[in-house]
Amino acid sequence: xxxxxxxxxxxxxxxQAADASYQPYEPWRLDRPQRRGRRPAARPLLVGAxxxxxxxxxxxVAVTVLRGGDSAPQAAADAVPAGGxxxxxxxxxxxxxxxxxxxxAAVGSTVVAVGDDAGAxxxxxxxxxxxxxxxxFQVAGVRPPAGQANAPGDVPRLVAASTSGWVAFGRRxxxxxxxxxxxxxxxERLPYTAASAFQRQDRVQRIQAGGPGFIAVGSTSAKGDFxxxxxxxxxxxxxxxxxxxxxxxxxxxxxxxxLTLMNAASDGRTLLVEGKRVVNxxxxxxxxxxxxxxxxxxxxxWKIARVPAPKGSVGLSIGGGPKGxxxxxxxxxxxxxxxxxxxxxDGSSWSEAGTIETSGYQRTAWLLPAAQSHVxxxxxxxxxxxxxxxxxxxxQETGTISLTARQQPLGAATTGGGTFVVGTDRxxxxxxxxxxxxxxxxxxxxxDLSRVPGAFPPDxxxxxxxxxxxxxxVAVGGTDGDAAAWTSIDGGTWLRAALxxxxxxxAQGQQLTAVTHGARGWLAVGIGGTRxxxxxxxxxANGTVWQEIExxxxxxxxxxxxxGAAASAGPGYAxxxxxxxxxxxxxxxxxxxxxxGQGADDHDLKADGDAARWMRSVVGGPFGFAAGGxxxxxxxxxxxxxxxxWSSADGRNxxxxxxxxxxxxxxxxxxxxxxxxxxxxAVGEGFVPGKGVAPLAFVxxxxxxxxxxxxxxxxxxxxxxxxxxxxxxxxxxxxxxVTGRPGGTDVVTWTSPDGVTWTAARVGGVLAGPGDxxxxxxTVFGGRVLGVGGFVGDHAEQPVLWRPPLP
Length: 807
Description:
Elements: H1 49-61, E1 79-81, E2 98-107, E3 110-119, E4 122-130, E5 138-139, E6 141-143, E7 155-162, E8 165-172, E9 175-181, E10 186-189, E11 202-210, E12 213-220, E13 230-236, E14 243-246, E15 258-266, E16 271-280, E17 286-295, E18 303-305, E19 313-321, E20 324-333, E21 336-344, E22 351-356, E23 361-369, E24 374-380, E25 383-389, E26 396-402, E27 407-415, E28 418-425, E29 432-438, E30 444-446, E31 460-468, E32 472-479, E33 482-488, E34 495-496, E35 510-518, E36 521-530, E37 533-540, E38 547-548, E39 561-569, E40 572-579, E41 582-588, E42 595-596, E43 598-599, E44 613-621, E45 624-635, E46 638-648, E47 653-658, E48 667-676, E49 679-688, E50 692-700, E51 708-710, E52 722-729, E53 732-739, E54 746-752, E55 759-762, E56 772-781, E57 784-792, E58 797-802
Parallel strand pairs: 6-10, 43-47
Antiparallel strand pairs: 1-58, 2-3, 3-4, 4-5, 7-8, 8-9, 9-10, 11-12, 12-13, 13-14, 15-16, 16-17, 17-18, 19-20, 20-21, 21-22, 23-24, 24-25, 25-26, 27-28, 28-29, 29-30, 31-32, 32-33, 33-34, 35-36, 36-37, 37-38, 39-40, 40-41, 41-42, 44-45, 45-46, 46-47, 48-49, 49-50, 50-51, 52-53, 53-54, 54-55, ...
Pfam family, one: DUF6242_C
Protein name: DUF6242 domain-containing protein
Keywords: Membrane, Transmembrane, Transmembrane helix
């Protein structure tokens, strides 16, 4: 890509943090109280039936039998996309996912908005592009580096553009991420090393096309809390290679104040940056003020730009473009507010231009460049007022974009076809993205993002499945942020079961994660909400109609309390989970009265100092109950995971046994446990130095009293291999797992006659290829294996149903 040539119509997204874990200084944000509760009216699914059909067709085409030598993948012809089999709740009042659009940029007739979509499969980046000045949008393709995948968490937050190219920036735990594009339609994610100039302790507030290339601004903190923030400028000729300037090499002096650069602007010759100074004033708290610096040599050297500050000044922001440089002072005069605009030809000397005194004025959110004018976006009483000026002196209102009290604008841009505002809508319990445009004479036109195929897939996941009495299979999971269950009598067709309607009055984030069948009926458990996590426990006599179990034993105290797995046996039913840093167990003989289980020793269940305990799985049998999980052990000043198992003859009293690790493993944990009579098999994962994540298996011949560790083989070409489910059947054991790094995981299997000797294989078809594939629940039903899981890709997410013959 060649270096961007200025002047051009630059990106005009607002300055916001690239890291959602903190709240940056954003003077354009409206201060609004949050409202709890759900939306009063249902909203449409975010992906139409046509889009789901298209995904199903693509996946169905991919169902192939891959052949080869002894290590050839297994046939996956019995794996099918199941988005149409597991129905959503038709009365859902929101979509159950979290979406944001955090920035937008435009050049000519091309508009690109960036953000993310988060659901059960993690958070995925979104690039929405329009090539017709915003009349229609589609999801832009993103090509990862060779040999890599677009991983969950790789999310763009900022975007900038010129006539020669585009760049987007995001954050990950180790630092930054960069994307580039020639035309805004197709994007390339650069290798992580390309963003090495953006360090872990940095915050990037704005990326802007200007001067000979691109400029990014923000701050860095040696302490990590940014009370000592120092300004940083990054410069790039093409968006691919960046130089980091700070300290003496930058030459922007903050004095005794902390200083964060919040914004950048340019007229093609001069660069401006706007900063926020914060001085600790002792007992009176911190005082903040704005300042502007200018550079005439492409950002190499800077000098203070002394923008006049008349009486009543309470804020400062900048803008620039082909028509010159502008600065706006927010003026408070009693109860009234207005904007005083200043203009400059060189960034050094400033003259009074005009004022903006819109009715209900709150603040000027953006000063944007247009080909022959400046555009101001003013926030005023639940609307964004658009104004234009040829020179910064005379401003004319050209329209408005309506904003509700729960909409937070985060970015804006202009094209010849209109002005665009993006942000987050928190009208309901979940957050949704919004994108609105005003096309001049065409008026305001909100963009219906539910009509953009693949932009924001529906929330639908199936966690596990169990076969029970009466020839019925029950699968559980969640849709639209609510818990869900489905039943089947043939394994191929599924009906949605009736869960208690009052569950939908709870907070978003419900999910059923386990289901079991016993002498008194069905029991399912999971998460009853994510703010905070609380137990969700439901039961059913027939699997089709469920009621919530409300018992004081499931009420949390001060810490997070979770129910994650359940099993049945002769004594009754057991549920396992966590209580803060401790393991938690509940027992009932009749599904009506529940009690908390106890450890035989004080620390069998309770955390021992820093040594947390957790239970992931539980199984019942003639031995009573057995559970699998792990503990943290402190060794040489650090903690490591150690696999663990618990046993109980009656479901009330539990004994902890730390399990041995095979040679070469540094740590490990148990994820799933099953039983065939007295023989127990547990599977999990561990870390092998120099090799990565590898599978673990443990075998007990005596109902969990003694255990033996084995290391199942790595499938051919396997990398970071993790078991996800295990099944006991008449001829032995079957386990499923995944291989690959996040964003590109494929399903693998292991088979064993005894839990000691395992044979590994890869699975092809829809259980392999781009995206993440998983099988997380297994049972035997109708003489075959019945497995459920999911597929998560860049632009699609849906359940998967797997029905291979018994091995």
